[in-house]
Design a protein that fits this description.
- There is one protein chain.
- The chain contains seven helices and ten strands.
- With 224 residues, it is an alpha/beta fold.
- The strands form two sheets. It has a six-stranded mixed beta sheet with strand order 6-7-8-3-9-10, sandwiched between helices.
- β1 and β2 form a beta hairpin.
- The chain starts with a strand and ends with a strand.
């Protein structure tokens, strides 16, 4: 069974003036151990689809299922805390916390003892190439590529099966992009996570096992 199943999903944004169908009849399956790229022009619906996979909202029609259970029937706060980590283009770090505290933050939320949480976060931060002296710094003392590594290490520390990334290389140069793509690929293929990336970056889609093309809210093609 696929870890995540998207079945004829519809999603509409409504205002007093108009209704916009952002996702229209999308179906797909996502498995552990694979790297997926969702590509398409701005406004194609790919980021909306990612937010539905993250449980930030539920579809207007159809279903998004985690291990066979629709997200509409899940405790979605618990689903995100226990099973999903989201990595953003702008990193979404807490700039009043140290790098180590950022890495351990999901564990603090789970009430893990501080010493244990910090030890696990340290292990994951070092595993993505950060150094011991960087762990006591504030995030704004790091480069963009280093900050994205902190965000990835935080996802690793959380232990989520599902890693969702929204344009994770959008603010990075070529060298850092290659490093981040390599880390995300290893997360899928070596650590067995389900990694799904929304991207405009050809380097990311070229590295994916499966590429999903979004156009006008619909899934246009699949390859990779």
């Amino acid at each position: 069974m696929a870890l995540l199943t998207v079945d004829r999903v519809e999603y509409e944004y409504r205002s007093a003036y108009q209704t916009v169908r952002a996702v229209s009849g999308v179906s797909a399956e996502f498995e552990m151990g694979r790297l997926y790229a969702i590509v398409g022009a701005s406004g194609s619906g790919k980021t909306t689809l990612l937010s539905l996979l993250a449980g930030l909202d539920v579809p207007s029609g159809g279903s998004v299922c985690y291990q066979g259970t629709p997200t509409s029937r899940l405790d979605r706060d618990g689903y995100r805390l226990e099973h999903v980590s989201v990595i953003y283009q702008n990193f979404n770090l807490f700039y009043h916390l140290t790098v180590l505290e950022n890495g351990a933050y999901p564990l603090y939320l789970r009430k893990m003892p501080r010493k244990e949480a910090d030890a696990l976060a340290r292990e994951k931060l070092l595993s993505v190439g950060l150094t011991e002296d960087q762990l006591v710094r504030m995030p704004n003392m790091l480069s963009g590529g280093e900050q994205q590594r902190v965000a990835i290490a935080r996802a690793l520390a959380a232990g989520s099966e599902i890693i969702l990334a929204d344009e994770p290389t959008g603010n990075l140069d070529t060298e850092n992009t290659e490093n981040i793509v390599s880390i995300l690929g290893a997360l899928a293929r070596e650590a067995g996570r389900c990694v799904i990336i929304v991207t405009h970056d050809p380097a990311v889609s070229a590295a994916a096992d499966v590429v999903l093309h979004m156009r006008d809210g619909k899934l246009a093609a699949e390859g990779g």
